[in-house]
């Protein structure tokens, strides 16, 4: 096991520790995310009564909430996400929606990593654990930060490190009474999906708790990296949130379907034409729907009656040009 992190890696990891948005994956996602309220407020709005009728007529338990987002003030959706945030208890959780990352919990302003620990603090933690920390990990706490830097939420703080060790060693943790391997010190992870450092070899081991059911206790411990140095170096080699944002701005805007695409597609096949005819029902007024025999109670169900939507192959952007039907 190497006694120290290399000077090059140490310089790079220290720089990342001072970057509020780059010191951990969680901070990067938080910086790049929108709150549920921001997403709801940014949703397309309409005051068209026909749009409200269509949305509220959808066969979905969320029809009213979706309609409120588009045609109202979005209070229903904000209330739902607020309840989810409360259930998370302040824990960060994210969801991807296309290119946007949504923060399901409370959105917090990213901050730099906590300062490094003192020698006394590290010694106290070692006394509680009953053994010295592996040298590279000890150096991390003394020279980089008291946790919060690295993949996911970063390496545990000393307090979290001691608490996780107690959790895993206080009593047998395996389904068949297996004790936690004494040489594996958990340093990172959420719940029981943890990355550990082997106190003998310095190797990083991932404990895949779900693997126990399929491969057994021993196979649930999987090599992840040769050392803490390699593990951190791999993470440092990945793009930061700022780099990812810069790359997104360089991408060309995604192509959209045009009215010409739909027109050409509709003329290509009688089935396509019928699909577009029925789709127009959603934008009709109640009087127009009544004129073709549809009531306001059942039009959203009857508009597709007898029509096999699974048989439709929808157009993609540029369809008209590919068919030779687009303009110059």
What layout of secondary structure does this protein have?
Blueprint: H1 7-17, H2 25-31, E1 33-35, H3 36-42, H4 49-56, H5 63-71, H6 75-88, E2 94-97, E3 100-103, H7 119-129, H8 135-143, H9 158-169, E4 184-190, E5 193-198, E6 204-207, H10 211-215, E7 221-225, H11 228-236, H12 241-250, H13 259-268, H14 270-279, H15 286-291, H16 299-302, H17 319-322
Parallel strand pairs: 1-3
Antiparallel strand pairs: 2-3, 4-5, 5-6, 6-7
Helix pairs in contact: 1-11, 4-5, 7-9, 13-14
Description of the molecule:
The protein has 328 residues and is of the alpha+beta class. The chain has 3 domains: 7-18 and 113-243, SMI1/KNR4-like, CATH 3.40.1580; 26-103, no CATH class; 259-322, no CATH class. Helix content is 45%, strand content 10%. The chain has helices spanning 7-17, 25-31, 36-42, 49-56, 63-71, 75-88, 119-129, 135-143, 158-169, 211-215, 228-236, 241-250, 259-268, 270-279, 286-291, 299-302, 319-322, and strands spanning 33-35, 94-97, 100-103, 184-190, 193-198, 204-207, 221-225. The strands form 2 sheets. It has a 4-stranded antiparallel sheet. Strands 1-3-2 form a 3-stranded mixed sheet. Helix 1 packs across helix 11, helix 7 packs parallel to helix 9 and helix 13 crosses helix 14 (270-279). The radius of gyration is 28 Å and the shape is elongated.
From the structure above, extract its key features.
7 strands; single chain; elongated; SMI1/KNR4-like; alpha+beta; four-stranded antiparallel β-sheet; 10% strand; 328 residues; 3 domains; 17 helices
